[in-house]
Amino acid sequence: MYTRHSTSGPSGAVADGFKLAVMPAALPMSINRPILVNVELRNVSGATQASFGSRRDSYTFTIVNLTNKSMLARNKTSTFGIDPVPESANTIVSSGDALYAVFNLGLLYNFVDGSKFSVQVTGRPKINGKIVSLKSNKIIIELLPAHSP
Which domain holds residue 126? Predict the structure, then answer.
């Protein structure tokens, strides 16, 4: 998790002075490589305290296979996001800055083929000590099929 000046890309609606955004971390994406996305918790108001929360428990992705319209199931046995500290500490986030975290969707969800998927994240970070619910923008990711040896 890190802090830096926010992007100006698409994001979800404002709640308690913050927006949530999701974006691919690396392109192209492939079914046999890590499927990484960045999640941005963007401050669009005055300086305030924010905690990203637990990557395992505070964030849920809605991932839909655009070919067959099926929703991907979360991998319930995945240990991704179980951090030594269960929740990130409160951080002062200045206006125009953001908190970021990287999620490996390939460890969290059961991708079985190369296809196009819509991805949206719902997060429950803490803003000034209060848990808020934020929904991000939607993105489309295309996974290339696994390469044959």
Answer: 2-141
How many domains, in total, are found in the chain? 1
In angstroms, the CA 53 to CA 88 distance is 5
Residue 124 lies in a domain: yes
pTM of the model: 0.83
The vertex-8 CA angle with 3 and 13, nearest 5°, equals: 90
| Residue whose C-alpha is closest to residue 126's, from 36, 59, 73, 49 | 49
pLDDT greater than 90 at residue 84: no
Domain for residue 21, yes or no? yes
Residue-averaged pLDDT of the chain: 81
74 bridge partner residues: 109
Q: Report how far residue 137's alpha carbon sits from residue 13's, in angstroms, rounded to the nearest whole number.
A: 8
Residue 148 lies inside a defined structural domain of this protein: no
Q: Tens digits of per-residue pLDDT, 22-58?
A: 888 877 788 878 888 888 888 888 768 888 887 778 8
